Amino acid sequence: MEKIKLLITDDHTLVRESWVMLFSADPRFEVVAQCGSGEEAVELAARLRPDVVIMDINLPGVNGFDATEEILKQSPLSRILAVSLHTQPAYAKKILKLGALGYVTKNSSTDEMILAVLEVYNKRKYICEETRNIIAGIEFGFQERNEVLLKLSKREIDIIRGVKNGLSSKEIAERSGLPQKTVEVHRYHILTKLNLPNTAALVNFVNHSELAPEL
């Protein structure tokens, strides 16, 4: 079996050398080069055609996002495994959209790092457990709020409709025939029930909820 050829890119020498030691000790891998910048990564990938590029996102100069795009132009058969300090799903989503196949954080274990490289090498997408758990938590929270939204009263739904359409509490009160204070109390209770911090969050949630077409 041919060894999986790796290019390791990280601007922190200690981190980079730790990865080199990790993969060099495993007979399945061969570290063909290492570097500390996006510019170097693009040049090395174009020349060496590695199977997998381990790419730190936060690089000086040409960052990991831009380097990923350029590497895939220069060496389209190379697979990119992005690495970052960030656990937020938005970073994973962005780099995967640019063509990377994997995303791990620097909190990932060595076992998970190796697994991620193997998955990416085999052209399977991989997101580390830490980020997957955050995504699951967000989706679970959204699902819970959807269930609460379906249980709101007709009066509360009418008020949400007014908020979504940009009406103030005074305007909603005038249209519904309720005292303004009552409308404000309803708005407060709606935010509390849905566990949302403010009106902007309410509008954003409602726009993406199952009831959006009806509101």
Please give the count of helices.
Answer: 10
CATH topology of the largest domain: Rossmann fold
Report the helical percentage.
55-70%
**Strands across the major sheet, in which order?**
2-1-3-4-5-6
CATH architecture of the largest domain: 3-Layer(aba) Sandwich
Describe the structure.
The chain is an alpha/beta fold and 215 residues long. It folds into two domains: 4-132, Rossmann fold, CATH 3.40.50.2300; 152-214, Winged helix-like DNA-binding domain superfamily/Winged helix DNA-binding domain (Arc Repressor Mutant, subunit A, Orthogonal Bundle). The chain is built from ten helices and six strands. The protein has a six-stranded parallel sheet with strand order 2-1-3-4-5-6, sandwiched between helices. Helix 4 (89-97) links the parallel strand 4 (79-84) and strand 5. Helix 2 packs parallel to helix 3 and helix 8 crosses helix 9. The longest helix is centred in the middle third of the chain and has 22 residues, at 129-150. The N and C termini lie far apart (59 Å).
List the helices and strands and how they pair.
Layout: E1 4-9, H1 13-24, E2 29-35, H2 38-48, E3 52-56, H3 64-74, E4 79-84, H4 89-97, E5 102-105, H5 110-121, E6 126-127, H6 129-150, H7 154-164, H8 169-176, H9 180-194, H10 199-207
Parallel strand pairs: 1-2, 1-3, 3-4, 4-5, 5-6
Helix pairs in contact: 2-3, 7-8, 8-9
